[in-house]
Amino acid sequence: MEVPTLPPVEPVLSQPPSSSTSAPLPQILTYPSTTPPVLITQGAEALLYKSTFLLPSLPCALKYRPSKPYRHPILDVRLTKHRILSEARVLVKCRKEGVPVPAVVKMGKEC
Ligand SMILES: Nc1ncnc2c1ncn2[C@@H]1O[C@H](COP(=O)(O)OP(=O)(O)OP(=O)(O)O)[C@@H](O)[C@H]1O
Ligand SMILES: [Mg+2]
Q1: Which residue, of 31, 70, 81, 99, has the fewest CB within 10 Å?
Q2: Which of 63, 68, 84, 104 has most ligand 1 atoms within 8 Å of CB, for mutation?
Q3: What is the uppermost EC class here (predicted)?
């Protein structure tokens, strides 16, 4: 019996979302004076970029949670805000206790 061939699988992690495929990139990903962020991984909700903060010599991780078109817009904003804040609080608390987690240097809707 002939085994059907499956269509090629699109990689989940490819290019950062562009305006043609997703919402416009937030200002922090396009701001001309920053180092262009490089997408390094993707989680269930967020995209993780390697970038720099303030100076090209200061590396940082940039976690971006794009809006989810499958969620109700009001719920989406609420969940995203809550998750960003919760993660930041946990990171700050951990760092205060001496756990070697990344320092939170900036956060917000558009950072
Ligand atoms: N500071 C960091 N440096 C390097 N990799 C990171 C960093 N933070 C997260 N990652 C990686 O990014 C990926 C996704 O991270 P994370 O689990 O935080 O996001 P998520 O699953 O999309 O969202 P959620 O915060 O809801 O779990 C994971 O593979 C994680 O190891
Ligand atoms: Mg996760």
Answers
A1: 70
A2: 63
A3: transferase
